[in-house]
Amino acid sequence: MTALLLTLFLPLAGSILLLFVKREQTQLIKTGALVISLLSFIASVFLLFSFDQSNPGFQFVINQIWVESFDAGFRIGVDGMSMLLLMLTTFISPITILSSFYSIHKRDKEYYVMMLLLQFGMTGVFISLDLFLFYIFWEIILIPMYFIIGVWGGKNRIYAAVKFFIFTVVGSLFMLVAIVWLGHYVGTEIIKNAQGFTTNFMVIRDVSFNIPFDIQKWMFLAFALSFCIKVPLFPLHTWLPDAHTEAPTPGSVILAGVLLKMGTYGLIRFNLELFPQSAFAYASPIAWLAVIGIIYGALVSLVQTDIKKLVAYSSVSHLGFVVLGIFSMTATGIQGAIIQMVNHGLTTGMLFLIVGMIYERRHTREISEFGGIARVMPVFTVFFGIALLGSVGLPGLNGFVGEYLTLIGAFTSPFLDSWAYSIIAASGVIFAACYLLWMFQRVMFGTNDNPQNHNLKDLGKQEWATLVPIVIFIVWIGIYPSTFLNISENSTKALVNKLELIKFGKAKYELPTEMDKIKLEKEQNILNTK
Amino acid sequence: MIDQFIIELQKSISLFKPEATLAVTFVVALIADLIFKKSKNISGYISLIGFIVTFYFLFWQKGQNYGTFTQMLSVDPFALFFKFLILLTSFFIILMSFFSKELYINNRSLGEYFSLIAGMTFGMFLLVGANNLIMIYLAIETMSISSYILAGYTKEIHRASEASLKYVIFGAVSSGLMIYGISILFGLTGTLNLFEINNFIANNNVNIYALFFSVFLILAGIGYKISAVPFHFWTPDVYEGAPITITALLSVASKAAGFAVLIRFVKAAFIDNTQLDSEGIWILISNIDWRFIIAVLSVLSMTLGNLVALWQTNLKRLLAYSSIAHAGYMLMGVAVMTDAGVTAVMIYFASYLFMNLGAFFVVTLLANKIGSEDIDDYKGIGYRAPILGVCMVVFLLSLTGLPPTFGFIGKWMVFSAVLESNFIWLAVIGVLNSVVSLFYYVKIFRNMYVRGVEENENKENYQFHPIAIIVLLLLAIPTILFCLYPGPIANWAAASVGIFLG
Q1: Cβ separation of B438 and A136 shorter than 8 Å?
Q2: pLDDT (mean) for B196-221
Q3: What is the dihedral angle through the alpha carbons of A179, A183, A184, A187, rounded to the nearest 10 degrees?
Q4: Nearest one of A331, A327, A320, A386 to A354, comparing CA atoms
Q5: What is the torsional sign of CA A444, A448, A450, A453?
Q6: Is the reported ipTM for this assembly greater than 0.90?
Q7: B186 with B134: CB under 8 angstroms?
Q8: pTM for this entry
Q9: DSSP string for B294-347
């Protein structure tokens, strides 16, 4: 529990501390931010080691009442699904801070304060078990991200930042109404507690399937709108290419690596878990949008002339797989989706880092400006190749595992009405190979006839340090995914059990039943508080 | 009988201490200004002391529920809550005035200015407790006449004189409408006391059209004070022309008083108070659907306020339209006519006090330095005045209703009250409006931090008086703190919905 609190609050404490450091001491600010972020990572590693994989419920739960009058609480905890994403957050954050050392050259103090605030918000989103708290974390992220794009971004940064801000808030305000409505409905109609209101996720999720479909569907749609904008699901994706292209490199890495996962995480955690009946009803349309997104993202990537934009559009395509996996509502599909979230965070994050590195050297990202870079930067080429192949989905690297599982899930899903989803989506993998490899070929191979490219320096120490940790995990997930799949397995199965119970009347997997689990958790809570 | 009367009178007078203090403050501040000619701020200090004494007396009124002076003025938890808000606002306004350059042009003394603020506060105190139509009218006039003068206080500036004149003319029209409405209502029911009106309507057959007409006219008078559409026409011009501090005072305190009297008027006169149920849902006694009418006013206010605010380039004018929009959000809480709705309005007001005063204070301080309130002149200000910049971002986020700010709690409470009463369409319109408001609030901090920063890169930072910064932080810190810890204020508001009902 202490480890969880440390993971969450260290970045916040750090950002407040940094405010008191003098602007001129940039070195201190930089190392300070890095150290804090690393400490938070270490705390989360402790958490991982004390995490019990066999328990499908929430662990390290803190349940503290916050606002009495509408039963909002400071309720946090992790289960298998959020554990992986929490680890992804704490792992990517120090890497982005390290990469900022050579890509951010102005207003360092404000920048690192914003980065740590961002980390605080992201961590909070993945661990909050209270809708009120969740909404606060969800919105906290906007402000630092707005400034990171708007102040440290590229030429068109103002447009991109405002677009990002407004798109996200539009979605989340509808979610706010849905949260209030849900809290009120559950509080007065179902559990009938004293306040007539609750935002306690652990209470709501056990009863929310009782909400009549006519009401439930509006709540589902409001939540889904907010999350699908964040993911982003086609056709709500238009903010993403702008934000990615204009954000500074570390901003893009955070955006691709973690921020987008908040959307997909929300889809699993809230849309599937709270509104199962609506999820069954809307699975097909959403899956279609996901499939369209896969193909559309891939086709648009194919014609991009800017490397960063290409990677940005490839995100639309890759996250389509995640959404497809989620709405297959099978254990395989959801596990694939979760592992694919982690994969996308790692590989796309790494691709953005690599694009940033080449941009630092040449101050351009146009594919036509390059050619034959492999000869002058051999090490760089190797790293680029690994990230690229991971993204393509080459067996043996991480992308393959995720895409394969989501496709299997969608194919075998009893909730989706057709197997056409997987067939069409699978062609997205082929397109991915086309646009990524073609880009790689044009940039890295061929003749190096641009004189500006003759004397490019290969990677420096700091750049090695940012890339190597990611490569380790890319290979690890590719070769032995069970390490990661095991973490989320039981929680996913519990969720699927619940869905199958509601739809077909019997659970698919043998796990402690819902009631036993709840009792167990309650007992644990009592023990903890004592 | 006489004894009874004397006891009542004694009790009434003892409960009248806060108002009496304000009246005394008004006079003393005026005289002190004549005696101590050299000190420009003396009456300001005296007003501050008077306000502190008033605070002290207010604390002693906790838990009172009594109709003083034969039910003319009620002293109840509801009035107390609004009195605290109004007094706190006036207190901050006087502090803010010390740092406003525009007030001190031509080296003049501000005696009348400060004493009129005390006078206006006195009027608002009467208004929030008024139980009698004539009392409501008198209180509104007391408050309005002070504010007409204050709006044109910087008479050297043309737009201020214009603002003042417009304010007087519109004000005269609206109070004319109101007194007309009052006279019709008096004609219909034969009484001015709200409880007796309630009684009469409940037990007799009143002509519904006449009733509707008279109440609508009274609502026009109140709507003018809270600047709800379609009674808002004075707002932008007056807000733009008046000194910034007075704009802030009008936008917070006089609006709070207007809302208090609106809620009290509706609840005391038109709600069946014999069968209030435990869930706090009010039951209307007449056949007129006030819920719907107020909901329509609310939708009009927020939509018009937000859409017009989008096109403003002057920050004061922008905040004027945004205050119309906020009146609309708060009217949502009134429209549902439940205790939860009133609680939500009260919490919203508490948040509105901090965020709106804060935003206006930042505008005041910056106007001293750059001599303009144009949003385009704010480019790069965030870096040249770091503390002001951060505070402004906090206030703007709060006005938008985003966490982690107090404004979010206000919005949360309003939405939850609205959804509780199944006014889902109203909540959805409210959300769409919040989205629109986002565009113009973002525009402000975009200019402060993001746009055109390079041009101002190497200019020197602005320096501000340390006390001004402290006042600013006194507004900014609660704006964040009450989001993280809203419990006490939410409980206080929930406990304060009790209205004295005869």
Answers
A1: no
A2: 86
A3: 170
A4: A386
A5: positive
A6: no
A7: no
A8: 0.90
A9: HHHHHHHHHHHHHHHHTT--BHHHHHHHHHHHHHHHHHHHHHT-BHHHHHHHHH
